[in-house]
Structure formats: structure tokens, C-alpha cells
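Researcher: Here's a chain I'd like modeled. Treat it as a single chain, no partners, no ligands.
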Amino acid sequence: MGIDRNARLAIAPMMDWTDRHCRFFHRQLSAQALLYTEMVTAAAVIHGDRDRLLGFDAAEHPVALQLGGSEPAELAEAARIGAAMGYDEINLNVGCPSDRVQSGCFGAVLMQRPGLVADCVAAMIAAQGVEVTVKCRIGVDDQVPEEILPRFLETVSAAGVRRFAIHARKAWLQGLSPKENREIPPLDYPLVHRMKRAFPHLHLSVNGGIVSLDEAEAQLAAGMDGVMIGRAAYHAPWEILGAADARIFGARPPCADPAEAVEAMRPYIARHLAGGGRLHAVTRHMLGLFAGRPGARGWRRILSERGPREGAGLEVLDAALAEVARLAA
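Model: Modeled as a single isolated chain. C-alpha cells:
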């Protein structure tokens, strides 16, 4: 169906990171991987600046909108708006453990209320025609994942969701920061693998702690339908996305090397600058492009120091690229 093939490798929604500039850049590295927005609350979609919150470039397809919320009618309206904007998927966040999300009764706290999640996704599905998916945890706090996760999948899939991305860690709603919740609770990949065997009709992706394409390929070989990678893809985008089309999808990548990816970004950056945008809004997402390669430090230094300056333009990009060439020589 639809974008199932693209979901073999997805880049996780990450607050303050996976904005439209980040996604356009990632798309220059992989034509195949499924990209996600940052989480946007349903209320913000309905009442906020839709172009600022939801606008995206057509080149980003396939791209999914991740919503946060727990009120079925509100989520249904936000899903309808997202579908009308052209998103390829509408995803409900049932995994974020931040205090702000908990206070709004959405995110990971919803693992405790699978019936409410089912009501939410049913309303979202009924409101529009784009596929609705869920990103969740294996449980929260003192829940027993072996008990709660299959019950959650059964309840929510009965409401019409076919595709889930499962972060293979619990979330601790008290006592751990969002960063700690990404690192401290132990990973349980075998449990997620068992869920795939128990629910063979569902499309299940695994998320959490996966930092290389070798690991992604191992998860696919273990029977998972897809793999979702977050921070590793952001910090070393060429290592993950630059090689993904060939290794994961058996397709030709858009760019042959990082320098070619920089050139591919040039017209986009020029348009952004001509519209009054700041260089750093785009180039901050490109700092890791040469990670692990000669010249990476010089690239990061020039973009970090000069990119945020008032009036910074493409000459900063040229200087950073020249520094890479000099140090790699």
C-alpha cells in the first residue's frame, strides 16, 4: 500500500530539528526514505499559522505529518487540514514523554489509555482519506510491556490503524527528562520482534537506539517491516541517508557525495535568502554532512560561526566547502 516501501527507512520526527529546511536537505540525500515533521499539536494546526507550521516543499514527498493531541474531534479536524495540505500520512504521537505533553494528556501518557487512542484514530480516519499511523512506546512507568503492548496494538488496530512505529523503550513519565527517556530505559527489540510475529497483518517499524544502516539492515532481516532512525541520521546524514537508497531500497541515490549534496541545496538556499530568510535556518541542519570525513570540523566551524550572522549568504557555504577541500587535500 501507498508508502509502505518508503517506510522501510523513516527519519523520526524530532522537535526543533525536522523542520521543512531539514526535510528538504534530507531529501537531497535520499529520494526514498519516509520523512516526518516535528510534532505539531492539533490545536496549533487548527488555530495557528498553517503555512509556518505545516508548509513544505513538494520535493519532500513522501512526507508525514505528526500530530499531538487526545481530543478526537480536534485531531480529526487537524488531520483533515493536514491531508488538504498534501501530506502523505498523518501520524499520532503516543510516545513523547515531556512534561508539557503529559500536561496536555497526549504523547506517551496515552499508552495508559488505548481506548482513547482508538477513539482518536477512528475520528482521524473518518475525517479524511490519508493513512493514519501511530508512533508509540512499549509501555510507560510500571506497565508490563509484554502485557500492555499487544493489548495496545490490538485495540488501536481494530480502530483502523495498520502501520505502527514502536520505540523499543518504556517511557518513565516521572523522574526522567525527555533526553534520559531516549537513553536510560533499556531497549527491548525482541519484544517488538515478537509483536511482528503476533500481528503479521500489521506494518511494524522499530525505533530507538539504531545508529547505523548495518543495524537497520539487521532489523529488517529479523522480520521488521521498517526501521525509524532519529538522531544518528541528523548528526551523520550522509552516513545514513546518503547510503540508504542503495542499501535499503536498491535504488540509485540522488547525489554521489556530500559535495554534490551541497550543490543540490544551493538553489533552495538562494530562494530562501531571496525571501528574507536567514542562512543559518537552513545550514544548521547541514552541520553533520561531512561527519567522519576530512574537513568535517572546518565545515562545521565556518557554518556555525558565520552562518548566523546578519546578511550571511551563499559565500559562507562556498567558504565552508573550500575549507573541506583544503583539509581533505
